[in-house]
Amino acid sequence: MSSQQWNFHPDQFWMRGERPPAPVAYDEAKQLWNVYGYAEALQVLNDPETFSSDLSVLAPEGQRQIFPGNLTTMDAPEHTKMRKIVSGVFTRGVVAGLEPRIEEITHELLDAVEPGDSFDLVEVLAHPLPVIVIAELLGVPSSDRPLFKEWAGKLLESNQAFSTSEDTPELQRQREETLAQIRNFSDYLLGHVEQRRAAPRDDLLTRLVQAEVDGERLSPAEVGNFSLVLLVAGHITTTMLLGNTILCLDAHPSAMAAVRRDRARIPTAIEESLRLFSPLSTLRRVTTTAARIGDAEIPPRSVVMAWTAAAARDERQFRDPHTFDLDRENIQHLSFGRGAHFCMGAPLARLEGVLALNILFDRFPALRRDPARDPEFMPGANVTGVEKLHLLT
Known about the structure:
The protein is an alpha+beta fold.
């Protein structure tokens, strides 16, 4: 499969087969450190004391309202306490109990597709399935998913740029765009938070409203930001996972045939697609002290971009890294992060992927990509996933 024909973001040069200049490279224009190597990215993700997730230290005073309650921008011990609040919701046992509902939703969505039809996998299944699942868990109307898609899409398009240099008009514009979408999401969720305070229900949002950390209830802003992260992260990875896996299998007919014959190989196909097309291409950190990564000496308060998508193409870690290999062993990709911030929703995303792929293969024995319509990828350097993938049945 050659990805050079497709339109990837310029910052994702490795997707076109180009090698990074070095495992760690400084970007003078953006004043940040890019970490492209696998071992180097692993070092960053496994050392939260040196490489902090708390980006609020770099944000202007008027833009820090997005951080309270945001799991992705917290460090221990606050991160540990907040994570425990919902950790029980995403255990393997609890997630396994969702299997019948996930299958039901998948069948209902695919009922709109008649054998012989052409359809956009993302529009029909890959987006709505995980949105409905996470919305039902939270207790917000899944019928509002067009709003979620719009807001999440605009969030992902934004660079959400942070810099230790003096602000530029472009950086200010990017931040304002990001904040506008976060406000849309927050206002929506805060309305539901207030409803749960007045009338609790049996859902995750009520659990967040009633939760206590160190004997204190979470503020409305904390609950809203916490819910926002769960809602965005809870569906966007699965959306890209499904589309990317079908894309990889379609480009490798022998792998597609092998997976159809032996459905037990679907999880391997998913992991290899997660490696080759890492949905979240980068994870941002800031150094708390001077740090050394490989040959690079990095000052304190420096922004470090761990490019998990580039690390997945590191020839020092993976044989033939630009190749989709269904027989690859020990696929230790970083697509779900690593360490304290490893994605809680990974078991759910993997289960949704396995169940959806099985049902797709059952219902459409001749499923394949429409050769007349190229896949369209999500804009922005921070994500790698199909936005449109037209299939023939």
